[in-house]
Amino acid sequence: MRKILLIPLLIIISIAAKAQNHGVVKAIILDSLSKQPIQLATISILKLQDSSLISYTVTDKNGAFALHNLREEPSRLLITHVGYQGIHINIKFKNGQPADLGKIYLSAKTLQEVTVKGERIPVIIKKDTIEFDATAFKTRPNALVEDLLKKLPGVQVDREGGITVNGKDISKIKVNGKDFFVNDPKIATRNLEANMISKVQVYDDRENDPDHLVPEYQVKKIINLKFKKSFTKGILSTVGAGAGTQDRYVGSGFIAKFQDDVQLSAKVGIDNLSGSGFFSGNYGGFSTFNFGNTGLRKSTNGNFDFTKDINKKLKLHIEYRFDNSIIDNNSNSKVQQNINDTVINSLTQAINHQKTNSQNLHAEMEWKPDSITIVKYNPDIEYNYNNSLNKSSSIRSNTYVSLLNTTSSSDQGSSNAFQYQHNFSYYRKLSKKGSSLTLSNSISIHPEHSLNFNANDLTSYVAGFPSDTLRRSSKNANNDISQGLNAAYHYPITKKLAADILLVTLHDRNSGELLTYDEDFKTGLYTIFLQDQSSNLIRDLWGEGVNPQLTYNFTDNISFKAGVTALGQQIGNHFNSYTKDLNQDFFYILPSAEVHVKDFTLSYGETVQQPSINNLQPITIVYSPLYTFIGNPLLKPTYFHNINFSYRKYNRAAGLNLNANSHIVIEKNTIVNEQTITAEGATVTTPINRNGRFTAYLNSSISKHFKKQGKWDFTAIANTSASAGHNFFIVNGQNGYQNTQSIYFEPIFFAEWNDVISFEPNYRIDYATTQYQLVNYPKTNYATQSAGMRIDLSLPQNFRWRADYTYKYNPIVEPGFQRSANLLNFSVTRRIQKDGKGEIGLLCYDILNQNVSSRHYVVANTINDIQSQVLKRYLLLTYTYHFKKFK
Fold first, then answer.
1. Pairing, β 670-677 against β 627-630
2. In this structure, how many other beta carbons lie within 10 angstroms of the beta carbon of residue 522?
């Protein structure tokens, strides 16, 4: 099967390899009167046959440009600049020689808009804004904005809908300059139609950075979709529904109203597909297929989005989200725990049922009373409710005893939480050019309540370890109130040197009351109060800090930043009334530094984290015969030394994007649980401090978009991630060290022909190894692999066919767990009714009925294998209707 998958991959790679691009065009652009260089003129190379955009660039400060790796075919060069008359020149390549056009002169003009008679301008660059003419990029009938974005040079859309522009992530998508579902840009890209769009604008996200203090290499992008005039006022709507085998169902609705300075949109959905197929109600029906999602999930969710410009100075944006879901999951797990020369094995079967309800109301208000002042108020209100029932049964054995004990447990509980928080900021430019003052306030109020009932029956089969029956109730009430006030002052000392100072004050009060009762077996009521397992914990934390920082910009591409944070904390820990309070005072000096050289960035910083008040309790809690906890009031805060390195390189001419970043954390006073474990599996845990832990991560991605070869379009992507860690654990007085390394590699190739058919072969291998020091535990290592192919075909007219195949292989799963799986999905849709307003579809999910969710991982002295319930094969018939009415 794997050999079959490699055949189309090799064919496509060979086609791309033969399609060489050697053409080069270069010139210098000058003002016709002053003979001075023209910087930032937009240079576009167009296909002579249909005027489609091949590549583009801008002139440098000397007015020079060079476009490389062009296909040697008849082309047209288009030169434009705001304030100058645009010109176009036909290009013919000769025997692989560069087309050197020498000096080209532009004549000034008074019109504000750039036009070239008889020529559509596909791209214009204005300062930091790239503007694409959407009508210059051909898309299939009934295409969506996501399909349009894939056509734009430098824009990449991954299989999950994530978007990058010139190698940078986008932060949000706007519509006609207004926010549009800022928390989920895919609602815009997968519901708005491409033929509605006139311009696609891309610019830096400086909305919360008016002084441009965030360096350019860290700034994300915003995409603004400008509608055609005929679509500026009206309604767009899509509704869809589906039903299938195994009682599967889905429904989705989207509506958006656009009216002058108001945008009103809503999206709702309902399904019991566990996220296996996201029904977007668009052309193609299902936008992704996902395997291995744990559990069976029913969901009802919705988004509501409202944006209005109250006047020229005041803007308002409101977004409301809700999600109601029911999740059922059955799982089997095996845990092997090494203790000296003894291995304890635990086999567990679990049944989980959970209901959740979450609602969130988010608002953004921005007021600009004048040109130097910005006032923002962003409140959030969130409510969550959860109800769960979990049942499990376990069997334990060890190296010498085939049956130690069995447990049967049941946990039932409910919880609700409310949270209000806001961020208020006042920004004002000062008299010194470039200087500013920002005042900000944040408040969070978060009460939470829960009630849980636990039943546990332990049957022991060894002498000296008693059986036990437990019936327990716990009632928990938490209330967290925090507030902070910050002042930030920015002052440019010279053109290259700037100073920043940040003043911070905060107060966090967390109170938690836990009441625990045992059941009175005579009455059946939970009336036996357990004082040693109840608590009334209150933590008051006051903090104040000052952070001065200097930034020196040697050039536009080389900078150095250094600062230090002086932080004071006063903490009052109140335990039970019969336990002495613990008051603490801390003062920290935390340095930070950053060096940026062109595409490289290296930074260092120190942070600190306090131990939780639960770990500081000076008491012993016996939760059950199998688990006891002992608190430690002598715990120290944990220090983190953070080292970060990143490299970002984007070459527009070559279509090459490279990203690499690493993160190293070295810890001091790490909090680790010291464990004492008996041969029967009873555990006593105490948190203590240890030094020497570190973790390191490396993530990299490289993508190459090949110049279009006739009607073929090719993209190659390679993702890699690696990690290494040195951790420690203490079991029965014996110190041990765990060294873990892991790496994964995932090459993906994408080929598309004329918007008709696309292929996406992919492969992934994951490898991990774990070794131990000072303890005689066996070394473990494993590799899992997967390979697959996605095919998308639009033929004949109004039809769309999709197939998604994945082969997964895990060689080290425990006996009784599924080792390999062949996963296959298929869907077909057809546009019907006038103008393709209707659409019918058929989805076949997991045709071979082999879907599986399994995990294998190692933590300290335990090896874990878990296999969970997943959604299996089903068929689904869908219908979608598209409606729009614009003035």
1. unpaired
2. 7
- Residue 854's H or E segment, with its range, is strand 853-859
Tell me: the pLDDT tens digits for 79-101? 888 778 888 888 887 766 778 88
- DSSP-assigned letter for residue 795: -
β-strands 627-630, 683-690 pairing? parallel
First to last CA, the chain: 55
Residue 635, SS3?
coil
Q: How many residues does the chain have?
A: 887
pLDDT score of 410 more than 70: yes
Distance CA 736, CA 365 (A): 54
Q: Residue 24 — very low, low, confident or very high, per pLDDT cuts 50/70/90?
A: confident
Q: Name which of 809, 802, 712 is nearest 753 in CA terms.
A: 712
Residue with tokens 């300062």: 127
Residue 39 CA from chain centroid, whole number: 37
DSSP string, 215-258: -GGG--EEEEEEEPGGGSSEEEEEEEEEEEGGG-EEEEEEEEEE
297/539 Cα distance (integer angstroms): 38
Q: How far apart are CA 416 and CA 478, in angstroms?
A: 11
DSSP state of 6: H
42-47 and 53-58: which strand pairing? Answer: antiparallel
- Give Cα separations from 108 to 33, 80, 86, 612 (angstroms): 8, 11, 9, 68
Q: Which amino acid is at 608?
A: V
Q: What does the alpha-carbon distance between residue 244 and residue 273 come to, in Å, rounded to a whole number? A: 11
Cross-strand bridge partners of residue 718: 702, 747
Per the CB < 8 A criterion, the answer to whether 330 and 305 are in contact is no
What pLDDT does residue 639 have? 95
Please give the C-alpha separations between residue 331 and each of 346, 519, 676, in angstroms, as whole numbers: 14, 29, 28
Taking a C-beta distance cutoff of 8 angstroms, is the pair 394, 346 a contact?
yes
Confidence of residue 283 (pLDDT cuts 50, 70, 90): very low
pLDDT band at 276 (very low <50, low <70, confident <90, very high): low
d(CA 442, CA 436) in angstroms, rounded, equals 20
Q: Which of 213, 175, 116, 824 is closest to 549 using CA atoms?
A: 213
CB 359 within 8 A of CB 324: no
User: What is the CA 148 to chain-centroid distance, rounded?
Assistant: 23
Residues 6+ apart with CB under 8 A from 466: 460, 625
CA distance 584 to 616: 12
Statement: residue 531 has pLDDT above 80: yes
Band (533; pLDDT cuts 50, 70, 90): confident
**Which residue would you say has higher pLDDT here, 718 or 48?**
718
CA distance 122 to 173: 20
Q: Could you tell me the CA-to-CA distances from 602 to 558, 592, 646, 737 in Å, in that order?
A: 12, 11, 7, 29
Residue 851: Cβ-neighbour burial (10 angstroms; 0-12, 13-18, 19+): buried
Longest dimension (CA), the chain: 103
CB 854 within 8 A of CB 821: no
Tell me the whole-structure pTM to 2 decimals. Answer: 0.85
Q: pLDDT of 98-126, one tens digit each? A: 788 889 998 887 544 445 455 568 888 87
Of 188, 147, 162, 159, the C-alpha closest to 319 is: 188
Q: Minimal CA–CA distance to 575: which of 544, 521, 519, 534?
A: 534
Which has the closest alpha carbon to 659: 222, 54, 218, 221? 218
E strand segments, 732-798 = 734-753, 757-773, 780-793
Q: What's the confidence (pLDDT) of residue 455?
A: 94
The C-alpha atoms of residue 723 and residue 768 are separated, in whole angstroms, by 9
What digits encode the pLDDT tens for the residues 471-491? 999 999 999 999 999 999 999
DSSP string of 193-210, one letter each residue: BGGGEEEEEEEE--TT-T
- Cα distance between residue 170 and residue 185, in whole Å: 9
